[in-house]
Amino acid sequence: MNREEIIVSVRMLLQNPDPDAFRRLVRECPPADIAEVLRDAAPQQVSALLLTLPSREQARLFVELLDAEQDAVLAATPSGPAATLIGDLPPDERADLYNRLSSDGRERLIPLLAQAEREDVLRLAAYPEGTAGSVTTSAYATVSAGMTVGDSLQELRTSAPDKETINVVYVIDGDGRLRGTIPLRELVLNRADTKVEELMQTDPVLVRSNDPDDKATEYIRRYNMLAVPVVDGDERMIGIVTVDDAMDIDREQDATQLARYGGTSAVGGPDLDLKDSSFLRIYGTRVFWLGLLTVFGLITSNFVAAQEDILAEVIILAAFLAPIIDMGGNTGSQSATLVLRSMALGQMQLRWRDIGFVIRRELGVALALGASIAVLEVVLTYFTKGDIGGEVLAIVGLSMLTCTVVGGVLGSLLPFLARKIGTDPATLSAPLITSIMDLVGVFIYFGFAYWFLADLIA
Amino acid sequence: MNREEIIVSVRMLLQNPDPDAFRRLVRECPPADIAEVLRDAAPQQVSALLLTLPSREQARLFVELLDAEQDAVLAATPSGPAATLIGDLPPDERADLYNRLSSDGRERLIPLLAQAEREDVLRLAAYPEGTAGSVTTSAYATVSAGMTVGDSLQELRTSAPDKETINVVYVIDGDGRLRGTIPLRELVLNRADTKVEELMQTDPVLVRSNDPDDKATEYIRRYNMLAVPVVDGDERMIGIVTVDDAMDIDREQDATQLARYGGTSAVGGPDLDLKDSSFLRIYGTRVFWLGLLTVFGLITSNFVAAQEDILAEVIILAAFLAPIIDMGGNTGSQSATLVLRSMALGQMQLRWRDIGFVIRRELGVALALGASIAVLEVVLTYFTKGDIGGEVLAIVGLSMLTCTVVGGVLGSLLPFLARKIGTDPATLSAPLITSIMDLVGVFIYFGFAYWFLADLIA
C-alpha cells in the first residue's frame, strides 16, 4: 500500500470504524504513515480507534503521534485503558509523556501503573531535559558475564519482546555494572558453548546520565554505533540511547543552530518554537536581541549624525551609506557561514593553524570580491546617476573595496572568537554580524570622505 | 584506554614502529580514535603503519580517514598492497574513492582488482552524486524466499564476514527482486523450521537508485530503520543505505542549509567548502550573490539620492537611515528563521492554514516589538542627541514601528514563497532578506519624512 492508499483507508475507517479492517491495516502498514493521517482527526476519534487494537499495537501507533497529539488523545481516553497504554509505551517515550503531564495528571497516573513501570518512569523522568538520561530507554537486552552463547540466546528469547532492540547485548556483572557489549551478530555466528566473556568488547564506549544528549549523538555518529549505553553516577547501567533517537536529537540541534544564526537564540531554556512557545516568550526573546541591536545601532547613527558638516556639503554621500555598509555585512555573513559550516562538519577547530588558513583564504577572496563589487557599484552609479563628482566615485569605490575586505575577514574570525569565549558560534548571528559591520563601515566610509573632501570642510 | 592515552600511544608508534603493539592497539580501540591521531602524520608514515596490519584491519582503519587523507595515503602505497586494501573496502567507500581518482589512477587500479570487486565498483561508482545509488553499499545479507530460519542462519554464518550488516536480512527471489525483509532478531527468536516467508515483512519500504539521497535519509528517520533497500530501474535490489550513512547525509544537508542561509548557496554543484573548493569557485559563487545584492542595493541608493531636497533640509535624517532600515532586516531575519526552523522540523508546510497561522502570530509579535523598539530608539536618541526636532523623532519612531512590523511579516512569508517557487527556503538568505527590507524601509522612512516635513520642501 502506498501512502495515498493508506490515507484513503484510514480516513474511511475514521468515518466508519471497522476494527478488523483497522487491525489488518496496522499489521501491514508502517505506523508512521497511519499516524500521519490520524493527525487531522479529532482526539476522541483517534482514541476510539486506538482502543480497538491490542495494547502493544496501540503503543506502536501512539508513539508516532506528535507530543501535543499524544496528550490530547490521552486526555480523551478513560483512565484504565490509558494506564494500560502508558504501561506498554517504550520507557523513554513514557518518561517524556510523564514530564508533560500536569502534577494532577501525574498523581492520577502513578497509582494506576504496575510497580516496575512506576519505578521506571519515576527514575527516567527525573533526568533534566538536554541530558543523556532524558533520552535514555531502559528497555535493553542484558546477559551475565558468566553465560555462554547458548545461554544468552535463550535469555534473549525470553526477554526480547520487551526490549526496544536486541541488536546489541550488554554484559552486566552482579552489581549492575557494564562489563562489555556483544553485537547480536556475534552470538549468531559463534558456537553455543563459547563463553560470552571471550567475545565481548570490553571497555565499551559509554556516556553518563548527566552528559549532554548531543554527546550520546556524537559517539553514535563517530563510532557508527546502533546504541550507546548510559551509566549513572555509580557506573551502573541505566539504559541506552538508540540511533533513531540520536537522529532526532541531531535534527533539533541543527534547528537550534539555525535559530541562533537568525538572531532568535533563546537565552536559557528551549528554542523558540512558532507553534509551542507563548507570545510572551517569543516577544521577550526577540525584543532582547532587537533591543541589543538597536543600542548598538545608536552608536552608528550618532556617529553619522556627527558628520553633519560633510553631509551638508555632499548630500549624495547619504545615498551610498546603506549599500556600502551592507556589503560589509553581506560579505561577513558569507565568510562566517563558510567557517560555521566547516566547524559543523568537524573540519575546523579553534587552533592557530586553522585560523591562519581561514585568514589567508579569506583575504585573497575578499580582495577579489571587493575589487569586483567596487567596480560594479562605481560603474552602475556613474551610468544611472550621471552628475557624480570624481571624488565621490572614488570614495564609494574605495569604501566598497575596504568594507568588503574588512567585513569578509572579520566575519570569518567571529566563529573562532565565539568558540574562544565558550559560546555557540552560530550565536554570532547574521543580524549581529551586520550591525558590527555597519559601525565599521561608517568609519571606513567617512574616513575616505574626509580624506578626499577635507578641503570642503576646512 | 581513553582518548588521551590513544593519542600518546599512536604518536609513539609513529616514531618507533612496533607492529605487535599497533595490532594490539587496533584490536582494543575504536578505529575512529586511532584515525584521528593519524591525521597529523605524514602519508608515508600512515601507509607504512597500515601495511603492518592484516588487510581487513587496514580497511577498518582506512575508512575512518577523511577523503583527502585517504587519497594521500593511497598515493604513498605500492600498487599491490593498495589494490588489496581497496578490494577489502566496504563497497560504498570503494566507489567513492574510485570516483575521486584521476582517470589515470582508475586505469591503473581496475586491472588489479578481482573481477567481483571490479564489477561492483564500476556499477556503484556510476551513480551520480546526490542520488541514493551513490551512497549505497552492496554488502548486504540475502536469503531466498523458500528457506527456513535454520537455512537462513546457516547462510548468514557463511556469508556474514563480508557483509556490512546482517541486522536486517533481505529476502530475494530468483530474479534478484526484493520480496521482503526480516530483522535478524526474528531469525534468532523463531524455530529453525519456520519458513522465512511466514516471518518476512512484505511490501517493504525502499528507494530507487536515482532517488535523491535525502529520500533514503527521510525514510530511515521516519520509519526508524537500520537500513533501507535500494532497487534499480528493473526493481532489482542493488544494495542498502545504512543508518550511519544517513546520519552523515543529514549532517551535510544541514551544513548546506546553513550555507544557503548565509548567502553562499552554490548555484549548481556541491556546497562551497573552505578546505576543498578552489579559489575560483568560492570567488565565483560569492561574487554572484554579492553582485546581485549590489544591483538590488543600487535601486535603494538611487531612491535615497533622489531625496536630496529633503535631506538637504534635514541632514539629521541621514543619521537614522541605517538603524531604521536595519531593524526591518533584523526582524525579518528572526521571523524567517522561526518559520524555517518549523519547516525543518516538519511542523509546517505550504498550505493556507499554516500561512494564516504564521501571519496572525507574527503580526501581533511584530507590533509589540515595533512599539518597544520605536520607543527605545526615540528615547535613546532624545537623550543622546538633545537638539532633535519633534517631527524628526516622530518620523524615526513611526518608521521604526512600521519597518519592524512590515519586516517581520514579510520575513515570515518568504520561506513559504520560496517553497511555492520550488526553491530551498534557506536560499532566501539573511543578506537577501536584509536587502529587500532596505528598499522597503527607505520607502517607509521617506514616506513619513515627506508627510511630516512636506512644508519644508514646498
Automatic annotation (TrEMBL), chains A, B:
Cellular compartments annotated: Cell membrane; Membrane
PROSITE patterns: CBS
Protein origin, superkingdom: Bacteria
Key words, A-Z: CBS domain, Cell membrane, Magnesium, Membrane, Metal-binding, Transmembrane, Transmembrane helix, Transport
A Pfam match: MgtE_N
Chain ranges passing through the membrane: 287-304, 310-328, 363-383, 395-418, 430-453
Keyword Cytoplasm among UniProt keywords: no
Residue ranges occupied by any CBS domain in the UniProt entry: 135-198, 200-256
Alphabetical list of SMART domains matching this protein: MgtE_N
InterPro entries listed in its UniProt record: CBS_dom (IPR000644), CBS_dom_sf (IPR046342), Mg_transptr_MgtE_intracell_dom (IPR006668), MgtE_N_sf (IPR038076), MgtE_transporter (IPR006669), SLC41_membr_dom (IPR006667), SLC41_membr_dom_sf (IPR036739)
Gene3D superfamilies, per the entry: CBS-domain, MgtE N-terminal domain-like, SLC41 divalent cation transporters, integral membrane domain
Membrane topology: Multi-pass membrane protein
Family: Belongs to the SLC41A transporter family.
PANTHER family according to UniProt: MAGNESIUM TRANSPORTER MGTE (PTHR43773:SF1)
Complex formation: Homodimer.
Function summary: Acts as a magnesium transporter.
Protein name: Magnesium transporter MgtE
